Amino acid sequence: MASNAHIPSHRKPRSRARNLAVRAGVAGGVLGTLALTAGSASAVGEEAADSAAGTTTAQLPVITGDIATTSERTATSLEMSAAQYELEAAQQAAAKKAAEHAADEAEKKAKAEERRRAEEARRAAAAQAAEERASRSSERTALAAAPASGTVGELVSFLRGQVGKAYVMGASGPSSYDCSGLVQTAFGQIGVSLPRVSQSQSTAGTQVSVSALQPGDILYWGGAGSAHHVAVYVGGGQYIDAANPEKGVVVQNVSDWPPDGATRVL
């Protein structure tokens, strides 16, 4: 008992029941504080969630805008692809047209070149023909200048005198003849000099129509300048020639073997 007398009155020990009540109150306060804190945290969480939801809702137009932009880009890309296709098609069409034009021009040039060559060939042929005519004209002048010591009658008389003689290739008389040898020798009898071969004899003198023959005209078979047989017209629709080895020198009818042409040297 003596120890309790020294404890101050304001520090006197509390009763156990009071101490329990105090502790319970403290615990309750702590729990209340925790509850308030949790409530505040919950409220803050709900507000954050509401804020996030609001933010998401506000961003929807932006997403919609991105989708629209993507669609526009896709449409623009398709338009560009179509434009590129049209451009390539136009380029191909232009290239094809250019190739066709080049082919047409090449064909025109080829035809023009062909016409030019044909014209050159025609001119060359005309020049050659003119030269041949000039040559024949010179021959006619030379023949005309030669003295005519006989007449057509003498020519025909000589030819008739050779009828029945033999045909021998390359012979010029007096016992045998070939066709051009007989003609050359017969004209030589009246002072007219003629070439030896039938090709040259067919271009001597002046070309005349077979329908307008006169005695003394030279008849030929084949072309002028390329004749393969000659004879002399003696009048009455007949000619005399050294026909062939079987016939020899004979009188024949023009109608039996019509000549291809005739030339006149008298």
Automatic annotation (TrEMBL):
Domain NlpC/P60, residue spans: 149-266
InterPro entries xref list: NLP_P60_dom, Papain-like_cys_pep_sf, Peptidase_C40
Region (Disordered): 96-146
Pfam annotation, one family: NLPC_P60
Compositionally biased intervals (Basic and acidic residues): 97-123, 130-139
Keyword annotations of the record: Hydrolase, Protease, Thiol protease
Family: Belongs to the peptidase C40 family.
Name of the protein described by the UniProt record: C40 family peptidase
Organism: Streptomyces hazeniae
